[in-house]
Automatic annotation (TrEMBL):
Coiled coil: none annotated. Pfam families: AP_endonuc_2 (PF01261). This is Xylose isomerase. The keyword Cell inner membrane does not apply. It comes from Pseudomonas brassicacearum. Keywords: Isomerase. One of its GO terms (molecular function) is isomerase activity. Residues 21-190 form the Xylose isomerase-like TIM barrel domain. The keyword Lipoprotein does not apply.
Length: 283
């Protein structure tokens, strides 16, 4: 199994051509980015991807944006997903990373919603990987595990930093058995969170060594599971981001770290981590 690392375009404002130059120089393999909602933007992005042979992971939000429209019903979320999966197909993504649903829905509604979402994925011939994210249906591990019990074919994008915040602890207690989830993870978003936030100021800082170690243990468990499932390629996106995630100094509002440098550090660190993992498996 090999590791392919994708660059997130979250918070990036320069051109995609510049983003491509930077990611290639830093040793990334492709891009993970939001699906353009305008037809002209999709056509332009599709031509760019084809011309440059860029691997692309498409990110889709049901019912508006990261924070869903609170009045939107499950039916409205599904209609939105149906439309956006058709649009995503225009860009021929590796797969579609979906931030789906709403954390306010009761379990029965969640089960019905995800069952229909998987039907839509099959209709459009897309692999849908549903991301663990606050404000969305998969905001905590316990509801997710219950969904798995009822819908074992679900596949996931693991951004476990969200669960660390939601549960206000590293999920490393013997009672925190996430194995059923790990066995269904398709994609990793590699950001290091801590008990009071989804993003540490810098993952290399010694004061966050415990948090980094926990996340790396989780990612390694996913690699081990993917290898057992016959994956030839594992995908990972370092996803340190802006929008309140990146810490700023009070009064001056100066960022405590450079966002691209954080993601480059994470990419290099996980490339080395994966190489050590592969070496240990081969021994």
């Amino acid at each position: 199994m090999k590791l392919e690392i994708f660059r997130t375009l979250w918070g990036y404002s320069a051109s995609k051509a510049q983003a491509l130059d930077e990611l290639l120089e830093a040793g990334f393999d492709g891009m993970e980015a939001r699906l353009p909602l305008e037809a002209s933007e999709r056509a332009e992005f599709s031509a760019f991807l084809k011309a440059n042979g860029v691997g692309y992971i498409s990110t889709v939000f049901t019912a508006y944006d990261v924070l869903p429209e609170q009045s939107a019903s499950p039916t409205e979320h599904l209609l939105d997903l149906d439309k956006k999966l058709a649009w995503a197909a225009e860009l021929n993504p590796r797969f579609v990373n979906v931030l789906a649903g709403n954390d306010r829905w009761p379990l029965a509604q969640q089960v019905e919603f995800f069952g229909q979402a998987m039907t839509l994925a099959r209709k459009h011939g897309q692999v849908c990987s549903f991301e663990t994210h606050r404000s969305r249906s998969l905001f905590n591990p316990w509801l997710t595990l219950e969904l798995i019990r009822q819908l074992p074919d679900l596949r996931f994008t693991s951004d476990i930093s969200h669960w660390v915040v939601t549960c206000e602890r590293l999920l490393n207690d013997p009672a925190d058995d996430l194995s059923a989830f790990v066995e269904r993870v398709h994609h990793i978003q590699a950001r290091v969170g801590y008990d009071q936030g989804p993003q540490v100021p810098h993952p290399a800082a010694p004061e966050y060594a415990r948090e980094l170690a926990f996340h790396q243990q989780h990612w390694e468990a996913i690699w081990r599971s993917q290898q057992a499932r016959g994956y030839q390629v594992s995908t990972l996106t370092p996803e340190f981001g802006a929008d309140g995630y990146l810490h700023h100094l009070p009064f001056t509002n100066v960022p405590v770290a450079d966002l691209w440098s954080l993601n480059v550090w994470m990419a290099r660190t996980e490339r080395e981590h994966f190489d050590r993992f592969n070496h240990s498996v081969l021994q």
